[in-house]
Amino acid sequence: MRKQIVFHTFAPKTVPKRREARAPYTIMLYMRYYEVLVGDMQYHGKHALTYSFEANLLPGSVVRIALRNRSVLGIVLREVPKPGFTAKPITALAPAPALPSQSLELIDWLRAYYPAPFGTIIRQFLPSKVSFPKHNTAQKQEGQTTRSPNSHHTKSQTAPTLTTEQTAALRAITSSGYHLLHGVTGSGKTRVYVELARRALKSGRSAIILTPEIGLTAQLIEVFAVTFPGKIHVIHSRQTDAQRRDAWYEIRRTTEPIIIIGPRSALFAPAQDLGLIVLDESHDQAYKNESAPRMRTERVAAKLAQLHRACLVSGSATPSVEEYYIAKAKNKPIIALRELARRNQSTPQTTIVDLRDRSQLSRSPILSTPLITAMQYALERDEQTLLFLNRRGTAGAVLCATCGWRALCEYCDLSFTYHGDTHIMRCHVCGRTRPLPAACPDCNEADIILKTIGTKAVVQEVARLFPESRINRFDTDTAKAEQLEKQLERLKAGDTDIIIGTQMITKGLDLPRLAVVGVLNADASLLIPDYTAAERTFQLLTQITGRANRGHRDSTSIIQTYNPSHAVIRAALEKDWASFYANELTERRTFRFPPFVYMLKLSCLRASNAAAEKSAAHMLHRIQTTFPEVIVEGPSPAFHPRESGKYKWQIIAKASSREPLAAIARDLPSGWSHDLDPVHLL
After folding, report:
1. Is it the case that residue 426 has pLDDT exceeding 50?
2. DSSP secondary structure string for all residues of 174-196
3. What is the DSSP letter of 601?
């Protein structure tokens, strides 16, 4: 039986003349009890908590609750009977409609699929701050649609005419289910997304358009705002608390179909009725959340699309091997765009420079003579050059500068990493070690190289060679959120002659003046000691050379490499996806990597290296004893062996079923972290 609260109000003692005294009256309110999902990053409990409130609340209502001595946000899950203890009260109710039922169902799925502290999952669905009325009691749970300060308005323009392939792709993409849009760079995938969004809005349903990087949202906004003025809403983690709060409220309150644009966090926006979800550049590893909950956006998007019965489109010129394999295995639609969208555009020329020929570096230790010549010609014609340097994960890679030999672990087929403190090469997957060879085992030349270069060194060298040129360094260090849009405008407006950058510049940038693309070391990503090294190399080379393939003007790509005959490099430059895919599947089947197994990376941090090694050995024994069906590799020191002053060791677990790996992740001792379904092992 619910607790009854009685408020007594009595008639005044002095009765006015000519007015009868009123009888005392009673207001009765019933205390209700609710399970509330705690949206606090520090809450590591595994269940909802029970709170009280004096009014009816709908599932999905956003509330403020007391947790220990702090005030935190929560989401009402359901009404429950009165508990056997004194429940704390819900202190405030947000003035917005309850979250859609699909959000609650997605929370329930995430809890089971990605073991993580409960509060970190719930927090994905809430803004950083929520405004509550000062006197928040049993108010109506509804909101009025307001003009959105975050929505983007621009004058509507006529979109380019669809190509034959784009029209066919639109016919092939149905109103629900998964579709893989495999289109070469410059084929107009974004144009297809726009028409799919138009279809969704026409049917009264909203759309989410995801991009792998926050910095790329400005480009998508520019494209979509032309066709859908006033319909665009943006949400991402680099907005201020107030901006995210306002965007969240606007999306939740609107009664009209809208388009939400942003990175992976936009997937949790409280849209009421989704008809379309798009993952642009779906191959990008940035779609994997590297902190708890360590979820893969493509899998969460697939579940959300299923809950809304929406259409899910993954678009990429270089889909991940895993995604492509699963799509084929499950007979999902794979739609190809093989032709360039712009008519009458010439095919860019590609030149390979063999760095084993030392004469190619006679004018510069970084830039080859053919590349310097092409850059000079571009400057004379007031055209742009883009220089790409892949520096991620290459420190300590071992390579022969004479013949291109790489030091690979014979058990894992991954690059060894050289450690200068111990003068050994180590595989950071299986833990095996080898001494650094004095000479190359293939050509016997004592020409082993370990050094890598960074963008700052490239900027200095370019400034020396072209002192009058305008140079722009474009990477994650310089492309801050508040500056990125202006930086992109400068690149397009012609205020830059030479652009130097890392992976960010491979992701969809469309530069009208671009005439030369230079890849300074195509081997760099091949040297990463990771099972995705070949895939990343193919994707990066395809994407970066695609920047010169946008149809604005004649262009050339110059690829510098120590391995000009390497199968992956050849496949990327020849746009031979089928050959690369077949070879990569063979390698992964042989060495037991996804998509042929499920994988779990376990990491422990300890005060000393000996303690970390001992803890890892205990975990290895525990897994082998409890889960004999799981294949374990390692333990070994992590690729980055020190973190926050502590020592880090890791174990890689593989299984034909995902469930035993999820069970291991759910029951880890203190000091251990996990990454279920990792996209890399670094």
Report:
1. yes
2. -SSEEEEEEE-TTS-HHHHHHHH
3. E
Q: How far is CA 477 from CA 358, 502, 627, in A?
A: 32, 10, 43
DSSP H or E segment with residue 648: strand 646-655
Residue 312 and residue 301 in contact, taking contact as beta carbons nearer than 8 Å? yes
Place of tokens 């191959």: 283
pLDDT in tens, 260-318: 999 999 999 999 999 999 999 999 999 999 888 999 999 999 999 999 999 999 999 99
Query: Helices (DSSP H) in 368-523: which residue ranges?
Result: 369-380, 455-465, 481-493
Domains detected in the chain:
4-99 (no CATH), 164-337 (3.40.50.300), 349-394+452-586 (3.40.50.300), 598-676 (3.30.70.600)
In the block, residue with structure tokens 């991940």: 320
pTM for the whole thing?
A: 0.85
Phi-psi region of 423 (alpha: psi -120 to 50; beta: other; left: phi over 0): left
Query: What span, in angstroms and rounded, lies between the C-alpha atoms of 240 and 251?
Result: 17
Helix, strand or coil for residue 57?
coil
Residues in the chain: 682
Query: pLDDT tens digits for 633-662?
Result: 999 999 888 887 889 999 999 999 999 999
pLDDT for 534: 95
What pLDDT digit, counting tens, does each position of 518-575 carry? Answer: 999 898 888 888 999 999 999 999 988 877 655 556 789 999 999 999 999 999 988 8
pLDDT for res 448: 85
- For 103-120, letters b (16+ CB in 10 Å) and e give bbebbebbbebbbbbbbb
Rounded to 5°, angle at Cα 597 from 591 and 599? 100
**For residue 574, which of 538, 602, 603 has the smallest C-alpha distance?**
538
